[in-house]
Amino acid sequence: MSEMQVEINTKNEDKVFKTVLSDGLKVYICPKKGFSKKIGMYGTHYGSIDTTFFDVVDGKKRTVPEGIAHFLEHKLFEQEDGNALDLFAQKGVSSNAYTSFDHTVYFFETDSKFEECVKTLFDFITKPYFTDENVEKEKGIIEQEIKMYEDAPDAVVYYNVLKGMYNKYPLNIDIAGTVESVYSITKEHLYSCYNTFYNPANMFVIIIGDVNIEETLVLIEKSHKSTNTRASVIPQRYYDAEEDKIAIKEINNNLDIYMPSVCIGYKMGKKNGKENIRNAVICEIIEKCCFGNLSEFYEELYNKGYITTPMYLSYESGVDFSHNIISFNSLKYKECEEILFEYINKLKQNGISKDIFDIVKNKIIGEIVFSSEELMHVSRDIIDSIIENTDVFEKANMLDSITINDVNEYIKKNFNEEFMAISRVLPKN
Amino acid sequence: MKNVLCVNEKKFKSVFVSLNLLAYLDAKDISKNALLANVLKSGNKKYTTKRALKLKLADLYDASADIQVEKFSNYLSLKVAFEFINASVIEKIKEENIIDFIINYIGNPCIEDNQFNEDIVEREKKKLIEKINEEKDNKRSYALSKLEKIMFKNDAYGVSVLGDEEELINLTAKELYKFYMNVITNSKIVIQVVGNLDGYENLADNLNKELSNKFNNISSLEIKPSICLNERKGIMEEIENQQISQSIVTVGARFIDIKKEETYAAMVYAQILGGNPASLMFQNVREKASLAYFAKAMYNRQKEVIYAFAGIEPDKYEKAKELIVQQFELMKKGDFAEIQFTASKDTLISSYKEAYDDKIAIAKMKLANELYFGEDIDIEEILQNIQKVTIQDVINIANKVNVDTIYCLGGVRSE
User: Fold this and answer.
1) Residue among B346, B351, B359 with most chain A CBs within 10 A, to mutate
2) B4-215 with B236-409: one CATH topology?
3) In this complex, which of B62, B291, B350 lies closest to A110 when CB atoms are compared?
4) Residue-by-residue DSSP string for B311-361
5) Which tens digits make up the pLDDT trace of A396-405?
6) What was the ipTM of the complex prediction?
């Protein structure tokens, strides 16, 4: 059995046991005493931004259609003798998958069929079965998924702000691709992506629930050994160098909706993993102190009747990028934008107050404790730590070290109008 | 019905408390309740603004408080919910502080001259109307709530919990105060406490005592469990044009003369029809016909109805509609695989067990059982009842299902 290391969240006492198997597969187990649900996840460090890479089979540089990581996620469930989604459903187990910009995850949730589900998970992920026919059949389904998002204002406004910020970096393409790109996907493309990115050295397994740690590790090692025939290779990805400047200053879109939506993005460039985690924590503090329902700013806009829910600030990052996004919905979006820019300038000069900073720290500690009751939550910390190459609980354990000075410095340095893009989704009429 | 329902589970690190102020569901009261909830959330005499309330809660390590309107079949609940971390995990959060907060939250509003503050009432009214209009922006949930509105056109259940725009416009601060007094005097109050109750064993009883002192009432409202007796109707079809990429076709059906003990068969029925990836909707509408990305069915036990729906190309409307209606016919003939039947039972059983990992889901389930069945049914009994359902039970219940409403959002193009 591989040797395990343990990491502890000092705020809620969650523990994660981790190890790396000899071929590079990373394994994480988070025991949760007393809970019925057990979650199993198998993921790959491969997402929608990985459209150009060196194929492991022939070593050639290849550019594949946009949206292929997501297409592959749909198709991997397909098996020669049926569909893995059906296999789980037939056990009465819910299973699903998602694709993000930089990773793809397959998971199940069960109360009583944990062992057999782990086996099924390992089984289908290692046995791709792509045919011309089953690839063709999926296109209509994905076309409807794309169209569903085309009608969703929050998705449109978000993807457009990324298009505004990025010139070449593939964050400017939607995770699901376009209807045209999806229709150009072939089974050969899928195998090329699968072979390159779905191998143990680029993948991870996460187990959460009331499980015995040693027995679970043995189960994983056994399941892995009996299914894996893939060679371990660290994939070589290729991205065009992104410029500092933004691509498009303003993007407006019209939909058949009532409420205008706005996203304002501030591009910040490449940072290292630890910096990204630290920035994420600082932004959480800023979000709560300056924009959330504890802030005077929200109170003022609410009382004026401009917004009904707080503006939201998020920090998003990956290996090669980082940015801040402020988003809000308002019938008076123009006025809100003006007030917001003025407010940011004031914040840069005055900083935030110590009183609210202390209250917000308590609130975040509370959130971390509450999050421990939601089983899926810890998986986000684990996946972030894989992508950013940091400790699992880096975020929670770093909170105490962040000072009000750090926060004020961050505000001063970032939110630079030169690197800002605005996206709006407005009602058609 | 008992006034206090408690569940103590050590696996949690926190406690959920709710006061459910129950009344008979009356269409004209829904808007008043919706507005009242928002006005009460705007502050009280102790914490005078929304922000003051939120600051207090944040300082209590992300405690939360909310007031929501919920429909339960023939009843309406104004639910006051509060959640906080057990003192053994972080720091002492005293029981009396929690009781004090809740009593102030619901029982000590800012009143001037026997009415709520007019500015606040007007502001909250405007927000609520904005929210009602904003519902349109989430296409799938809008389509389903529209289907419900059509199916319950002459029934209070058809009114959204956000209320009705026209009713809201005319409500005054005075009327709302009068309504508030009526709610705290005449509602049946059910207190629920769920979570890690170590150190809070007497919280529910003490809260109950405080509430009786404060409101000085014992409601005479009698809660009678009721089953919804639907009638068979002809099919009506409605299409709403919106300029959107994807149309959403929804089909509504009612269970006719369903008996209380048949509820479990109805749950299994809904699962086989469209509750999971093994279901008829998923297999036949999505996987085989490639018509949709989402294709599902949902059982609404409150009104003994079922909704089936899918997101489609506008020019595939006729085909999709026929295919969905056909799935109901397949169910009547028992034309589904045994594995779909067993999978559906297993899915239901798992979802009940997993709901026990969530404090709020436990509370909601317990209250719903009291209101529908007139008793708090033990989870083991629920699981056994699901297990007992046979294929014949499902076919029998399928033959009590009558499709009567088809609604499509987004318009139709001919192929």
Assistant:
1) B346
2) yes
3) B350
4) EE-GGGHHHHHHHHHHHHHHHHTT-S-HHHHHHHHHHHHHHHHHHTT-HHH
5) 999 999 999 9
6) 0.89
